[in-house]
Amino acid sequence: MFGNLGQMASMLGRVKEIQAGMKALKEEMPNLEFASACGGVTAVVSGDFAVKRLEVAPGTDPASIAGCAREAVNQALALAKQTLRDKMQEVTGGIDLPGMI
């Protein structure tokens, strides 16, 4: 009987740790920036998946800007998502929480 209570207390403590870690992660991610470049275009996104900046290098072919911008943004977003997944794995101790990303 007491063994079960100890296990329950341990699980409850782990849930509280995960909640605290998730709260800290939620506060940290918007402050992180992820950059990617394609051609003469660099995209910078935040950890909460907002585009912060698009930079076009002088002399970049105007015909390639749209495609390169799309590619750079998608790559930067993929970096942000992978970082979030990795950090969530650290916080949860490897427990997969579907639908979080």
Task: Give the overall shape.
Answer: rod-shaped
CATH top level label:
Alpha Beta
Q: What topology, given as strand order, has the largest sheet? A: 1-2-3
Helix content: 55-70%
Q: What is the count of distinct domains?
A: 1
Number of strands: 3
**Oligomeric state, counting identical vs distinct chains:** single chain
Our measurement of the CA-to-CA distance between the termini, rounded to an integer number of angstroms, reads: 39 Å
Q: What portion of residues belong to β-strands?
A: 15-25%
Instruction: Classify the fold: give the CATH topology.
Output: Ybab, Chain: A
Show unreliable segments. Answer: none
**Rg over CA atoms:** 20 Å
CATH superfamily annotation: Nucleoid-associated protein YbaB-like domain
**Number of H/I helices:** 2
Question: What is the N-to-C succession of helices and strands?
Answer: HEEEH
CATH architecture classification name: 2-Layer Sandwich
Mean pLDDT across all amino acids = 88
